[in-house]
Amino acid sequence: MEFARFRTRATALLALGVLALAAVFVGGCAAPDDDERATFGTVAGVVQDTAGNPVAGATVRLEQAGVPDLPGVASVITDASGQFIFPSVQVSGALLSVVAEAPGFLPSVGRVSLTNGATVTRFAVANTGVTTVTVVLQAVDTSVQVGPGGTTLTVGDVGDDITIAFPAGAVPAGTTVSATRLSGTGLPVAASDLSRSRDFTPGTTQVFDVPVVAVAITPDGLVLNTAATVTANLPLPLSTAPLWRFDFNANAWVPAGFAELLTPTQARFDITTLGTYMISLETTWTFGAAVPQSTSPFNNGPVTASFPPLTSGEAYSVALPVQLDVNTLPASEIAFLKNAFAAIASEPADGFGREVIPPGGTVGKNCVLNASTVQVSYEIPGAFRQANGTRFFWICTETSALPPVVTPPHFQGHGQGGGTGG
User: Fold this and answer.
1) Per-domain residue ranges for the chain?
2) CATH architecture classification, 4-137
3) pTM of the predicted model as reported, rounded to 2 decimal places
C-alpha cells in the first residue's frame, strides 16, 4: 500500500491520479452574511492509467450542465502523485462532471453529486460527509495521418484485433485519426448503469449489456464524408452483435443498431461519425451477501486495516487488494467476464481498489475484508454458460477515533490501484 499525501488549502492544490478519481467533501469557505448560509465541499482525488499508475500533469476540471463557469472553480493540474483538489465547491445537489485529460490519453469523465459539505456561517462550520468516484484514463493505442487516398488503422493483438478502414476522401487530407481498444475500467460506464457493485442487495439479479469488444476512434464527433468500415475479431463467439455508441453528453451508451457477424467470432459495421463504439453481450449477474472474512486470500494478508486522519490536516489515499475468482470456464471467457465486471462496476476485478482519507484531520476509516458469491450467466452459439465465483473486496466506514497510522506489512510496496475498493 502506498500513501499519496496532499495538503488542503483554500487555494487550488494540484493532484491527479486518474483512473481513480476519489471525490471527497469537506468544509470550508467563509460565508457572506450572518443570516446567509452557503454550503461548500472539497472535491479531491487522484488520476491513474488503466494499470493503476498515477498520471502527473493531467488537467482536471469540474463541469455542470447548463452552468458554463462554476463559481470559484478553475481547472487544476495533477501533481507527481496524480492527485488533485478543488478546495471550495458550492454544494447544490446537481450532478457534476469531473473531466480529466492528459497528453497521450483519451479524455475520461467521472460523475459526482455534491449533496453534503460544510454549512458555513460567520461563526460555525458543520461536519461533512465523504463520497468517492472513480475515473480511469486510457492510453491512446495508434494514431495516423489520413492522406488523400485513405488509410487503415489496426489496434490489438493479431487474431484479437480491430481494423478501421477509411476510404479515399472520408476525412480532410492531413487529419490525424487515433484508434484505441478499450477494456475493463478503461471503458465508459456500462450500457446498464451501476455506480458501485457493493450496492447490490443480497440475492438481487442484475442484467447488463457488457462489452465484448470496444474501440474509441477520435477525434470524437468528426462526421465522415464517406463511411468507414470497422472489422473486429471477437474474444468469444456471438449469435447476435448489438452495437452501441457512447454519448459523452448523456454519459451513457445509446443503441446504434447491430454489427454484421461475418463469422461467430468476427463482426463488421460502418460508421459515419467518429466516436466510442462497443459490441455487447447480455449477461445476468447475481451477487450474494457480503460476509466479513477471518482469513485472507492475499498471501495471508490482514483482514482488517485502520487508517486514521493525520493531525497535520493532510489527506492521503490507500490501495487495498481486490480479487474476483471465476472457475469452470475457458481462459478467454474468464478474461471476458473480468473485463465486463470492471466495466460495469468501475473498479478492477483483480488488483487494487482505492480509499481516500479526507483532509481536515478529523475523519479516518476502518476497513474490513469481505467476500460475496458471484454467479454469471450468458448464451453463446450452441451453449448456455453459467459461472460461479467469489469476489473479495473491502468495506470501509468512517471513524474519528483511530490509532496512529500503521501500514499493514502485506500492503507495503504495492502500487496504486484503479478504482475504489469495496
Assistant:
1) 4-137, 142-282
2) Sandwich (2.60)
3) 0.69
